[in-house]
Every structure is written in structure tokens, then in C-alpha cells.
Design goal:
There is one protein chain. The chain has 413 residues and is of the alpha+beta class. It folds into 2 domains: 236 residues, Thiolase/Chalcone synthase (Peroxisomal Thiolase, Chain A, domain 1, 3-Layer(aba) Sandwich); 149 residues, Peroxisomal Thiolase, Chain A, domain 1. 31% of the residues lie in helices and 20% in strands. Strands 3, 4, 7, 8, 9, 10, 11, 12, 13, 16 and 17 form an 11-stranded mixed beta sheet that branches. It has a two-stranded antiparallel sheet with strand order 1-2. Strands 5-6 form a two-stranded antiparallel sheet. The chain is globular and about 55 Å long.
């Protein structure tokens, strides 16, 4: 059984989806709320926003780590690790897998993040500001580095194989899934948990607020009156395995990962290339690697942050790649509901793409009411849409010019 010349032993499929987001925990709650267009944006509770003119974020409210972290001590790991472990547990349960039955040394983890355990560094800063540096014990060095997130997931589930944290800015989730895809396709791993995790960061909030990039109330990608992004948090991990293994155990297959494309703008530390060259290059590489024509793509999950520049340049990049076909492909941004979850964003969006492929439903871009002549594609405004999704393209762009496009498709023999 082959597709594009790749045997079933090397084809990589999604058999479990774990999500912890501001609009829901778990696949079903997340998907139902996404299709209903529910917003997870509300006043920030994790820190004082009074010094700023903006006060909203997309936090995961009421999260109880102890419900998901059972082997490790939740009090000894950071929030990003807690969110990642929760998403991992939900993913393996969704896939119907008992991790104890896996070949530990051929099972691994890849997690993308932007800030790592930034809340730990913020606590460290508070100790120093308040003249209590002695409070920062050696445990801080065990909790803070970003590589500990993937390590904690591996420790929780005793996965002793490939282990990687990908600090690829806001494209990190796609980078991690691409890395896991390569690990399975090359035969280095038989099972991977891959995605992204990010906890709400005071530093991120402050930085984007000072840049004037945070919207005062809502996130409205591609709308003419859009005013910026909304910071958020969350985690998504996908259970990935070879198609042959999934078929043998009778697993439900949500989607197949068939290709990815990576590029760098090499232009500016925060600004995208003014002609969308880097973003276009990532999409073109993904299409070429997946042996796809322009007409083959059924849906594009946009990076869609809601900032003036991002939405305009992403539109330019899509039209640069797809030309006239761009006007016939539905495009939507779920950041309109979830805010921008940084390193977790494209992982959550990859999960949404897998579900769009499986259910033939496209989530909407909410808060889109006034057309922008510079953003003139079909952005699926406000209402979910039934649509045959054979191939979904998941776009992610990050500071430093990091671009990653991931292809998810219906799994066909």
C-alpha cells in the first residue's frame, strides 16, 4: 500500500488529538466550541494589567494540573509542562493507546514553544526585585529551561526515544510536528507525541502591549477594522504513528501528514518580508514535497494574527502561491477565538486541520464584519462551513522570519 511512493510502514497518521485551550479541554469540547464560534478571550487574571491600556487575553481558566499529571509532582514543574502533559494524556487516551505497552525506546516527544517556562523566570525576577534572591533554589534551574517541557512529557509517560523541544517562535508547533513526522518516516520512531505548549506570559503581554500590537477587546483577523492580536496560552499534542501500525490495531485515523515546507524570511527580526516571499516559499515547498497541485488544497488554516501587517502579507503570500486559485480556497483563522498561543498556536491549528479533514467542516473566522480590500479572499466569516476537505494546509509564521507550512490530508489507501 503506497501513496506518493511511500509505503504504509512509512506513512504518518494522526490517531489521537489532545487539546488544552481557552475554548475547551479535550478534542470534542474544543471542536464543538470552535465550530460554534465561541471566544476564549476575557480579562486577564494571571497578572495585573493595570499599567497597560489593554487587558484581555485568552487564558485556560480553571485548569487543574493534578487531574492529568499523575507520575510527576505537578508542584515541581512549570505550567507549560503541565499543559503539555495534559494534552499528551488526552492524546494517548483519544488514540486508544496504553503507553506502558509501547516500545519505550522507539516512542518519543517533540514539543514546540516560544517562551518555554517563562512564568518561572518571572517568579525569579520577583524574588530579586523583592530582595529575596535566596528563594531561588537549585530547583529553578530544573524548572525553567525550555527543553524540560518535552522531557517532562517523556518522564510522565516513560517514553525513552526521540526527545526534542523546538523553540521556533510562533511556528514552533508545526516545526515539532514536522520533526516527529521525519522521525517516524525515517524509521527512527514508531510513535510520537508532537505539538506545542505555551503558558500565559507577563513578558509576552508586556512586549506586545508596548509594541501597540494587542487589540483592546477582540481579535478580528482580516477585518478592515482589525486592531491587533490577543495573547493566549494552551497546548496541543498529536499522537502520530505509521499507517501500518494504525491499521493493524484498528485505530481511528483523523488525517495523514503528507508533507511540510520550511523557510526563513532572512529579512527582519520581527517584520515579515514585504512581498511575503518567506511565507510563500514555505507553502511552495510543502506543496512540492506533497506532490500537490494548486487545485488539490481544500482549506488553508491561516496564521491570521489580526494585526494589520500580518493579515495583509499573508494574503499576499497566499495569492503569490495559488494565484487565481486562491479565491476558490476557504481560508480561516481560529486565533479569532483562541488568541495567539505563541509556540502552541500552529499545533492547535494542526489539530483543527486534522479535525477539518476528518469531519469535512471548516471553522470560521469570527469577528469578521467589514471587508478589507487588501484582504480579499474567502475567510469563512463568522459561521462554520460544511466543505469537503481532502487536503488542509496549516500556515505558521514567527519572529525571526520562521515559516512552516504543514500538509494534512484524508488518509486514502
Amino acid at each position: 500500500m503506497k501513496k506518493n511512493g511511500i509505503s504504509a510502514q512509512r506513512r504518518v497518521v494522526v490517531t489521537g488529538i489532545g487539546l488544552v485551550t481557552s475554548i475547551g479541554v479535550g478534542r470534542e469540547q474544543f471542536w464543538n466550541n470552535l465550530l460554534e464560534g465561541r471566544s476564549g478571550i476575557s480579562p486577564v487574571e494571571s497578572h495585573d494589567t493595570s499599567p497597560f491600556s489593554v487587558h484581555n487575553g485568552a487564558e485556560v481558566k480553571g485548569f487543574i494540573a493534578e487531574a492529568y499529571v499523575t507520575r510527576l509532582d505537578p508542584a515541581k514543574i512549570g505550567r507549560a509542562s503541565q499543559l503539555a502533559i495534559a494534552a499528551a494524556r488526552l492524546a494517548v487516551e483519544d488514540a486508544g493507546i496504553e503507553t506502558a505497552e509501547l516500545d519505550s525506546e522507539r516512542s518519543g516527544v517533540a514539543v514546540g514553544t516560544t517562551m518555554g517556562e517563562q512564568q518561572e523566570m518571572e517568579q525569579f525576577d520577583e524574588w530579586n526585585i523583592n530582595g529575596k534572591p535566596c528563594e531561588a533554589s537549585h530547583s529553578f534551574m530544573l524548572r525553567y529551561p525550555c527543553h524540560v517541557i518535552a522531557g517532562h512529557v517523556a518522564s510522565e509517560f516513560r517514553l525513552a526515544g526521540v526527545n526534542m523541544s523546538m523553540p521556533g517562535a510562533c511556528a514552533a508547533g508545526n516545526h515539532a510536528i514536522a520533526y516527529a513526522y521525519d522521525a517516524i518516516q525515517s524509521g527512527e520512531a514508531d510513535f510520537m507525541l508532537a505539538g506545542g505548549a505555551e503558558s500565559f506570559s507577563r513578558m509576552i503581554f508586556m512586549g506586545f502591549a508596548r509594541l501597540g500590537a494587542i487589540a483592546p477587546e477582540i481579535c478580528q483577523p482580516f477585518d478592515r477594522l482589525r486592531k491587533g492580536m490577543i495573547p493566549g496560552e494552551g497546548a496541543a499534542l498529536l499522537a502520530l504513528e505509521p499507517l501500518s501500525r494504525a491499521l493493524k490495531r484498528g485505530a481511528r485515523v483523523f488525517a495523514e501528514i503528507t508533507a511540510y515546507g520550511l523557510s526563513c524570511d532572512a529579512h527582519h527580526i520581527t517584520g515579515s518580508h514585504p512581498e511575503g516571499k518567506g511565507a510563500a516559499a514555505a507553502m511552495e515547498k510543502a506543496l512540492a514535497n506533497g506532490r500537490l497541485g494548486l487545485e488539490d488544497v481544500s482549506y488553508i488554516s491561516a496564521h491570521g494574527t489580526g494585526t494589520k501587517t500580518n493579515d495583509r502579507l499573508e494574503t499576499i503570500a497566499i495569492k503569490r502561491v495559488f494565484r487565481d486559485t486562491a479565491y476558490r480556497i476557504p481560508v480561516s483563522s481560529i486565533k479569532s477565538m483562541l488568541g495567539h498561543t505563541m509556540g502552541a498556536a500552529s499545533a492547535i491549528e494542526a489539530a483543527a486541520c486534522a479535525l477539518a479533514v476528518f469531519y469535512d467542516r471548516i471553522p470560521p473566522t469570527i469577528n469578521l464584519h467589514q471587508k478589507d480590500p487588501e484582504c480579499d479572499l474567502d475567510y469563512v466569516p463568522n459561521l462554520a462551513r460544511e466543505h469537503k476537505v481532502r487536503v488542509a494546509l496549516n500556515n505558521a509564521y514567527g519572529f525571526g522570519g520562521n515559516n512552516a507550512s504543514l500538509v494534512l490530508a484524508k488518509c486514502e489507501a
